[in-house]
């Protein structure tokens, strides 16, 4: 477990560091106002992606240890076509939706027409990541992640610095990286022979049923953590949004930690749940994880100021406090991921969706109020408050699902 934790972590850290090293380029060559447009674009991608992926990565994670090797391949072959259908539907909807005259700051409407395609590319990558994660193939997972990140970063640098493409170069790099990721992802899945089996309708129906809750959960979660950019852009303007987005990106170093933790903790606990595990054992593991997350969050907060001083152009320094609030928010998201595994295992996706939608609503209301009265930093404070509430809801529900000395049994499809 610890070896894989290190490899998963190094893959995430290297990828994140590559993106952080891109920030000096972006902040030097791109104005805060243009960065606001890029933040809008990234937010739209985040909102659309769950509708296309439709939870097939989560469905694979839940069913992986229940099925034998052949049935896993059949399940994978059956559900991997779902993003193709949803991608087509989303593309049509985006084209129809943007027949209306939406005023999106500093964002050329042409980039939006490829959103469905980009979502499809990302969904195949997400499924591949889930497949490798459940197999605990940490080295291949890390390599796949690093390749995608490097392609995006290098293509952005080349287009921005050498071709003077500005913000357009950053938009284009998203599509270039997505194309490379789907090519490598399909090659990995082909090697696993998932395309050599005959799909079964029962897995498609089960995945669609599972995906309903996952879409609501994922979508609400993304609105939860990304609505701040939409609100700031509307209330405070693109320039302030650009400054906020850079500070939030630095604060999201804590997201690397909690993401890496989740990638190890989820399959580890799922595997434990296929045997006998007591409530006391789960509590012991959970408290240890929370302690480690807290210590690492303190270290992340300690490096925020040096990162701003050494790497970020001075025109973005006004939002430094945002980074600290984002670190704290992702600490509680990490706490949430310690306990939400129990809800996923028991297929309580609709319950999770309700909690997420509830907290997303609270976050949106608080963000509107705080941004109007405190400016952009108020959005980060609203996210922190909502994250604490989110964690507490999942914590109490999770503890009610497992009784002491009881075996946790796999669900049937």
What this model shows, in words?
There is one protein chain. By secondary structure, the protein is mainly α. The chain has one domain (2-399). 80% of the residues lie in helices and 0% in strands. The protein has helices at 2-29, 32-53, 56-63, 69-79, 82-97, 115-134, 138-162, 167-191, 201-235, 238-251, 253-273, 279-302, 304-311, 320-345, 349-374, 377-399. The longest helix is centred in the middle third of the chain and has 35 residues, at 201-235. The two termini are 28 Å apart. Mean pLDDT is 84; it is low at 404-413.
Short structural summary:
With 413 residues, the chain is an all-alpha fold.
Labels describing this entry:
413 residues, mainly alpha, 16 helices, 80% helix, disordered C terminus
């Amino acid at each position: 477990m610890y070896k894989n934790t290190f490899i998963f972590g190094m893959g995430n850290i290297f990828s994140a560091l590559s993106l952080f090293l891109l920030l000096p380029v972006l902040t030097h060559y791109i104005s805060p106002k243009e960065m606001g447009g890029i933040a809008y674009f990234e937010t739209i991608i985040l909102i659309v992606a769950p509708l296309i992926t439709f939870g097939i990565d989560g469905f694979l994670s839940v069913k992986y240890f229940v099925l034998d090797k052949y049935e896993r391949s059949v399940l994978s072959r059956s559900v991997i076509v779902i993003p193709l259908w949803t991608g087509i539907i989303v593309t049509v909807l985006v084209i129809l939706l943007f027949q209306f005259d939406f005023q999106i700051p500093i964002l050329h409407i042409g980039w939006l027409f490829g959103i469905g395609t980009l979502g499809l590319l990302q969904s195949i990558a997400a499924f591949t990541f889930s497949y490798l994660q459940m197999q605990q193939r940490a080295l291949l997972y890390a390599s796949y992640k690093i390749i995608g990140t490097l392609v995006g970063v290098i293509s952005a640098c080349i287009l921005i610095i050498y071709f003077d493409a500005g913000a357009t170069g950053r938009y284009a790099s998203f599509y270039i990286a997505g194309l490379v990721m789907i090519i490598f992802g399909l090659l990995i899945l082909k090697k696993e022979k998932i395309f050599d089996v005959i799909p079964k309708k029962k897995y498609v129906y089960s995945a669609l049923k599972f995906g309903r809750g996952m879409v609501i959960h994922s979508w609400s979660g993304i609105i939860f953590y990304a609505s701040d950019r939409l609100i700031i852009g509307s209330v405070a303007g693109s320039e302030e949004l650009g400054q906020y987005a850079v500070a939030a990106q630095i604060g999201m170093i804590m997201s690397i930690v909690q993401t890496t933790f989740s990638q190890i903790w989820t399959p580890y606990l799922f595997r434990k749940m296929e045997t006998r595990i007591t409530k006391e054992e789960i509590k012991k593991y959970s408290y240890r994880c929370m302690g480690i997350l807290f210590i690492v969050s303190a270290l992340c907060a300690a490096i925020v100021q040096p990162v701003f001083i050494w790497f970020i152009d001075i025109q973005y320094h006004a939002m430094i406090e945002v980074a600290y609030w984002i670190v704290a928010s992702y600490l509680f998201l990490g706490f949430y991921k310690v306990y939400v595994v129990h809800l996923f295992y028991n297929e309580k996706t609709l319950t999770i969706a309700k909690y997420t939608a509830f907290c997303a609503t609270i976050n949106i209301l608080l963000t509107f109020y705080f941004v109007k009265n405190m400016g952009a930093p108020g959005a980060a404070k609203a996210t922190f408050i909502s994250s604490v509430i989110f964690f507490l809801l999942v914590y109490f529900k999770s503890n009610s699902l497992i009784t002491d000395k009881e075996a946790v049994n796999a669900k049937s499809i």
